């Protein structure tokens, strides 16, 4: 790529690079303007060559704190021209050595940042750069709107070149153009302005002023700015300031990108530009496509203001149907030379090659009769309150005429609509909000009770001008609206969410910002917590595990209901209860329906993906998986150790050593095969996920990885399954495919892929199991787990199922010694086995609660040994693994 004579290429010889740099002399005009200083292209060329020498010949990762100053920009150009990798971060990011997550993950070899006295330092952290770098790689750029996140877009030299040339072509940029840095260039739009203008030999004015500063307009006139770039919010500010393009006689064009601009605003600015003799371009793009993907020609802006236009030169756009979106919806898909190499999450990803040449934008779109593309929504902005699919982006567009700014977010009770209005009359504002709520009711079909409307002074926005939905949830008015509920009983009277989580998860302190997931809740405590919360708050939202204590406490309190009324039972609790009854009943001889243990093994994989594969770090993930497995081991040993000591029928190998030490199949020890298969499978999974490469693969392909593991494990099961004996289906090596199947099923993003997993389970199970009932139990159970969250049952049945599911591990390890006491009274033996297991678990819970209280008292004395003992034996109230 040539940016005004600087070659952007990988693997070129140093002498070739220097010859290319000499081509800067072809442009004799001004390249950069900074605080009154004009830096010509020849001078810029000299500085870039000098910075390239400072960086050295070995390819390095250079972290650059972007700012509107020549030093970081020269460093960026030196990286690109010298074959280094520029890691661009916002100047406001908290990049203090040892504390930045970006620095920790990417370990830059060199940094360019401002020091405490305001000057710029180029610091080398090592003489020899770390590791291999992909030969194409040139720039690491944060995805739009993210701040401080280690997820980066990997851009190549060709990406930068093709996009700069395409932009220069459709905007007709030339050496007479002058642009200003109105956007941060750690953001793809801001970087594309710099790249395209320098590639055209144009002038770039480096300034920290914005369109909100009156001084900027004086600067624009004095420096004869021809091109202004902005995001939708920029144009709102410009309208408030009464901006007219005629204020800047030199102005030639205005470009807009960074999010959808309201069609009415597009029309207004198009008319203003037409009156002043300049052009107004609406553009569309993503960081994953370097910057630009499509543009709307100025002559079409008045008549097609709601469109993004056509693909940029060299690019292609088309639509692909989506199965999990609104009926008839399609996703916008793009291909072109500016599509990224791929994503990076840490330094190791920088050596990986290209992942795809096609970009699935995640935007829903349609194609007009004029051949123009129109964005209709965002795939991840589809809410499902009460099972109704609501396109939040489309809803915002519908409501946009009723107020200046609008933002819609999903909430536990339904939808929250946040409006910004200039009306300061309290009575009129209240009337406006009531009308807004009724408009939402009309547009969505939701009841008014599920809609909250609140007014704020202004909608918070990200650096790129897009709405900051995460920040909206922190606004005080939103909290006040959510808190408008009848007075709640005190924890002593009924118990709030924090008290429930603290009691069941045995935590000495639970804050309002904690959630079930952040407190390391897992499948062993899920059913107990969900049942307790449902008793307090009634029906829970589908993602209650991630709601904070504060958010849970804002749910409506459930009225007291008769014990025989219907309630909702978590489907996982139902499945574990049924599986446990089938296991015990079949062993006792009450009936003969097999497959319960194999279903639990698959549900264990499902639960691991649901509760442990969160956004937490790799170390925290594996630590939580190991802790969960440790609880299963320890609670099992509480029964198995006395069993070995007091019984002549069981040897020490029953304690998780059957596969290594025997005895052969048919011995009593093999009754506990499930525990060993489960623990070994979890251990292997934890070990795999602890590997950085596997962790990256799981985060990048959360469905493909477990599906691949299922295929591999299925092949292993066919290779190693013995024709007779326990090896057929009871060893971890042979039964592990079920665990992977449950994992893949939970990660399947849509109905089609869930059905794919279920069909695969049916196919493998047909050849794997020796009985059709095993296949049916596993497939039907997994189907229920995949497609249902709750089932309606009488309250008394829900209470009983919750206790059996919670005690399932104790029931499993103990029923072998209980049922022989009742001889031929098989139904009695089954009931007593279940009740005994529940009773023992209840006693163990009480014991652990006492230990927990004692630990809290002794913690003041810093008795770490006792705390370690409690942590090891702090089992949960319910298990998915038995």
Give the tally of β-strands.
29
Pick out the low-confidence regions.
Answer: 1-25, 93-99, 483-495, 722-727, 856-882
Give the fraction of residues assigned to helices: 40-55%
Q: Could you tell me how far the N terminus lies from the C terminus, measured between alpha carbons in angstroms? A: 61 Å
Classification by helices and strands: alpha/beta
Largest sheet: 7 strands, mixed
Shape: elongated
Using the CA coordinates, give the radius of gyration.
32 Å
- β-strand amount: 15-25%
**How confident is the prediction overall: mean pLDDT?**
80
Instruction: Specify the number of helices.
Output: 30
Strand order of the largest sheet: 8-7-5-6-9-10-20
Description:
There is one protein chain. With 882 residues, the chain is α/β, with parallel strands linked by helices. Helices cover 45% and strands 16% of the residues. It contains 30 helices and 29 strands. Strands 8-7-5-6-9-10-20 form a seven-stranded mixed β-sheet. Strand 7 (110-114) and strand 8 (120-124) form a beta hairpin. Helix 17 (571-588) packs across helix 27. The longest helix has 34 residues, at 826-859. It is elongated. 47% of the residues are buried. Mean pLDDT is 80; it is low at 1-25, 93-99, 483-495, 722-727 and 856-882.
């Amino acid at each position: 790529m040539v940016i005004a004579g600087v070659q952007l290429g990988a693997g070129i010889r140093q002498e070739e690079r220097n010859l290319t740099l000499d081509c800067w002399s072809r442009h004799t005009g001004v390249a950069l303007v900074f605080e009154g200083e004009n830096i010509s292209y020849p001078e810029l060329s000299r500085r870039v060559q000098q910075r390239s020498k400072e960086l050295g010949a070995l390819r390095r990762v250079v972290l650059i704190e972007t700012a509107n100053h020549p030093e970081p920009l020269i460093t960026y150009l030196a990286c690109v021209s010298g074959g280094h990798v520029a890691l661009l971060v916002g100047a406001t990011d908290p990049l203090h050595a040892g504390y930045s997550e970006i620095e920790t993950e990417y370990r830059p070899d060199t940094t360019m940042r401002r020091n405490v006295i305001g000057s710029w330092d180029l610091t080398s952290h090592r003489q020899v750069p770390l590791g291999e770098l992909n030969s194409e790689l040139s720039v690491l750029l944060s995805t739009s709107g993210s701040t401080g996140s280690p997820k980066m877009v990997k851009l190549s030299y060709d990406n930068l070149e093709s996009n700069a040339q395409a932009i220069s072509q459709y905007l007709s940029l030339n050496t007479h153009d002058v642009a200003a840095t109105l956007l941060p260039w750690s953001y793809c739009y801001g970087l594309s302005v710099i790249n395209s203008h320098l590639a055209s030999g144009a002038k770039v004015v480096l300034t920290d002023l914005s369109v909100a500063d009156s001084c900027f307009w004086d600067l624009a006139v004095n420096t004869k700015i021809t091109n202004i770039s902005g995001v939708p919010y920029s144009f709102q500010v410009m309208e408030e300031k009464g901006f007219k393009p005629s204020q800047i006689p030199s102005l030639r064009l205005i470009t807009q990108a960074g999010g959808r601009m309201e069609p009415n605003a597009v029309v207004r600015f198009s008319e203003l530009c037409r009156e002043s003799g300049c052009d107004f371009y609406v553009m569309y793009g993503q960081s994953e496509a370097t910057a630009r993907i499509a543009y709307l020609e100025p002559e079409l802006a008045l008549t097609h203001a709601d469109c993004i236009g056509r693909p940029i030169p060299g690019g292609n756009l088309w639509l692909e149907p989506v199965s999990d979106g609104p009926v008839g919806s399609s996703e916008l898909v793009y291909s072109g030379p500016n599509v990224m190499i791929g994503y990076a999450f840490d330094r190791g990803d920088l050596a990986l090659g290209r992942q795809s040449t096609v970009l699935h934008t995640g935007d829903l779109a349609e194609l007009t009769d004029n051949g123009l593309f129109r964005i209709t929504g965002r795939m991840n902005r589809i809410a499902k309150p009460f099972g109704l699919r609501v396109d939040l982006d489309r809803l915002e567009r519908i409501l946009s005429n009723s107020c200046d700014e609008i933002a819609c977010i999903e909430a536990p009770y339904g939808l929250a609509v946040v409006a910004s209005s200039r009306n300061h009359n309290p009575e009129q504002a209240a009337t406006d909000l009531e009308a807004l709520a009724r408009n939402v009711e009309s547009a969505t079909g939701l009841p008014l009770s599920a809609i909250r409307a609140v007014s704020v002074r202004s909608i918070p926005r990200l650096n790129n001008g897009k709405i900051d939905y995460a920040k909206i949830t922190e606004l005080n008015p939103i909290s006040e609206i959510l808190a408008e509920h009848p007075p709640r009983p005190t924890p002593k009277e009924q118990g709030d969410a924090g008290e429930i989580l603290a009691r069941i998860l045995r935590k000495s302190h639970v804050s309002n910002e904690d959630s079930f997931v952040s407190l390391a809740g897992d499948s062993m405590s899920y059913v107990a917590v969900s049942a307790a919360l449902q008793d307090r708050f009634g029906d829970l939202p589908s993602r209650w595990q991630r709601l904070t204590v504060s958010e849970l406490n804002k749910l409506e309190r459930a009225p007291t209901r008769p014990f025989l009324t219907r309630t909702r039972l978590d489907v996982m609790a139902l499945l574990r209860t049924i599986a446990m009854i089938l296991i015990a009943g079949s062993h006792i001889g009450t009936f003969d329906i097999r497959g319960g243990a194999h279903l639990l093994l698959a549900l264990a994989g499902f639960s691991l993906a649901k509760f442990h594969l969160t956004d937490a770090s790799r170390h925290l993930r594996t630590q939580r998986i190991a802790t969960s497995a440790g609880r299963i081991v320890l609670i099992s040993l509480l029964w198995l150790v006395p069993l070995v000591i007091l019984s002549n029928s069981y040897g020490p190998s029953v304690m998780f050593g059957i596969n290594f030490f025997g005895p052969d199949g048919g011995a009593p020890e093999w009754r506990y095969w499930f525990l060993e298969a489960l623990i070994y499978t979890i251990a292997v999974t934890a070990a795999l996920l602890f590997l950085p490469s596997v962790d990256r693969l799981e985060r990048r392909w959360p469905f493909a990885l477990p599906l691949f593991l299922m295929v591999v494990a299925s092949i292993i099961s066919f290779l190693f399954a013995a024709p007779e004996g326990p090896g057929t289906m009871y060893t971890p090596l042979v039964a592990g495919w079920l665990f992977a199947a449950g994992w893949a099923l939970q990660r399947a993003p849509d109905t089609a892929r869930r059905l794919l997993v279920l069909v695969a389970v049916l196919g493998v199970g047909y050849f794997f199991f020796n009985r059709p009932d095993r296949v049916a139990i596993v497939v039907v159970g997994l189907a229920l787990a995949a497609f249902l969250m709750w089932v309606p049952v009488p309250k008394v049945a829900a209470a009983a199922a919750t206790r059996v599911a919670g005690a399932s591990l104790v029931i499993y390890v103990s029923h072998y010694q209980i049922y022989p006491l009742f001889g031929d009274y098989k139904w009695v033996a089954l009931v007593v086995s279940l009740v005994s297991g529940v009773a023992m678990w209840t006693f163990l819970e009480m014991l652990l609660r006492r230990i927990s209280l004692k630990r809290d008292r002794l913690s003041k004395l810093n008795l770490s040994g006792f705390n370690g003992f409690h942590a090891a034996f702090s089992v949960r109230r319910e298990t998915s693994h038995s």
